[in-house]
Amino acid sequence: MRADPVFTSYSANFEDVLLHRVFGGRSEGAYLDVGASDPVRGNDTKALYDRGWSGVNLVDPALLPRFARVRPRDRSFGAGRDAVPPDAGPVALVRFAGGAALQTALRDTDWERLTPDLVVAEAADRRTGRRGPGLAPVLEPRGYDLAHFDGLNEFHVKRGFRGVEGAFALPPNLFDRFVQYRPEDTSEQARAERLALDNADLRHETERLRASVAALTADMLALNQDLDSGLTERAELHGLRGVAEECSRLRARMQELDAYARKLEAELGQALDRDGRVRAELEHVRGLYEFMTVQHGHINALHGQALARHEQAQAQYEQALARHEQALAQCERTEAKRRRLAALYEEEHALRQALEASTSWRLTRPLRAVVKRVRGR
Question: CA torsion, points 11, 205, 285, 257, in degrees to nearest 10?
């Protein structure tokens, strides 16, 4: 499986990484950028521009020559009331660098023409970090919901827009495959950094799948234990044993669930990329633990509630069986992926060996050496 190309992030707070997720790496689109201070450094739309997007920039008039030179596909105008050109729109993105103070740059007619899918606006003071009122009162009546706050900006999504699911679940991380823009970097350094990430793809994917298989195997064993415990609880409740035995069983069950919860919490802390299924399982186990704690507090009433406990144990048994089947299916899918990846790796290795053993490779060896010396000058 080949990862997406590496891209450069220019934003000060990685806003363009989240935009890359929201718009799925689209190679074209339009934006309206209000209040940008530079066309490159700290600019949230420069990464979109690099991928082929273009749009309108409303900026300080003193910056217009630099925007015209660095962003020739864009149209740039001095920021102010009624600055949006009448032929602008629709756009996928509207960005306000100055937050609520700059929303006056757009009239009601502008909103009707632009109809953006996403509005990003600063909602916190850059000096103090204190969050302000934001644009929610302005945008909610226009059909937008607040989807995310990253500490500086609010991301408002148009109701019905389908490109946002899961985009804000995690902070920007190495799996977004981006390098941060640094003015001192040369183009050769940037290409080398991208090449290093590309060369690590195959090895990283193999290790990730191996770790996933190991994690799923451990989960499956834990769920098997949970299933066995559920069967035992069901049999005990069927026999309507005494309150003392029930109390002892519940204490043991609570200890087991507590150990299981602590085990999952430790695994979650060690692996930041643990998938959402394990997080859901952790929450489920915590819920079961809290439930058992409440049951322990009402242990004196257990005898009169034996039938209710039997129904609860039956439900837990069915849930554990379902989780077991889900974990087994996931393990099988992951193992299939690992085998496909290993086959691809072996095929690539064989092709490389065949190439290096070929007559043409040996015959062109002097020519390659000459080319290498020429490039080294």
Answer: -130
Amino acid at 59: V
Coil, strand or helix at 170: coil
Segment 7-63, tens digit of pLDDT: 899 998 999 999 999 998 788 999 999 988 899 999 999 999 999 999 999 998 999
Which residue, 33, 37, 66, is CA-closest to 49? 33
pTM above 0.85, yes or no: no
CA distance 168 to 188: 32
Give me the domains of the chain, ranges plus CATH numbers. Answer: 7-199 (3.40.50.150), 201-340 (1.20.120)
Between the two ends of the chain, the Cα-to-Cα distance in Å is 38
Candidates 170, 260, 262; CA nearest to 224 is: 260
Half-sphere exposure of 187 (CA within 13 A, CB side): 0
User: Encoding tokens for residue 225?
Assistant: 């234990």
Q: Which DSSP category does 129 fall into? A: -
- DSSP code, position 5: P
Contacts of residue 219, defined as CB under 8 A and 6 or more positions apart, other chains included, come to: 278, 281, 327
**Is the CB of residue 51 less than 8 Å from the CB of residue 26?**
yes
| CB-based burial label for 123 (10 Å; 0-12, 13-18, 19+) | buried
What is the spatial distance between Cα 31 and Cα 95, in angstroms, rounded to a whole number?
8
Strand extents, DSSP E, the chain: 7-9, 30-34, 54-59, 75-78, 93-96, 118-122, 144-149, 153-158, 178-180
